[in-house]
Amino acid sequence: MTTTIQISKETKNLIGTFGTKEDTYEDIIKRMYGLAVKEQLREFLMSSDNSIPIDEAIKRAKKKWR
After folding, report:
1. Structurally, how many domains does the chain consist of?
2. Is 15 inside any structural domain?
3. Structural domain contains residue 9
4. Which of 34, 49, 52, 56 has a 20 to 30 A CA-CA distance from 8?
5. What does the radius of gyration of the chain's CA atoms come to, in whole angstroms?
6. Is residue 62 part of a domain?
7. Structural domain that includes position 63
8. What is the dihedral of CA 51, 52, 57, 59, to 10 degrees?
9. pLDDT tens sequence for the chain (66 residues)
10. Domain assignment of residue 14, yes or no
11. Residue 15 in contact with residue 28, Cβ under 8 Å?
12. Which pTM does this prediction carry?
């Protein structure tokens, strides 16, 4: 089953620059999606939000587990 989405010619041209003559727009969009998912995972794993330096973690662990 296929569907149609409306995008500007500019966006279509930009998407086309990610592919080769053999690639369909679906191929290109799936490849871009895969890259975006990997990037989100990388950002999540490398985020320093809610993290503490290792020295602080060791200090807390020693205090908690005397």
Report:
1. 1
2. no
3. no
4. 34
5. 22
6. yes
7. 25-66
8. -160
9. 999 999 999 999 999 999 999 999 999 999 999 999 999 999 988 888 888 889 999 999 999 898
10. no
11. yes
12. 0.66
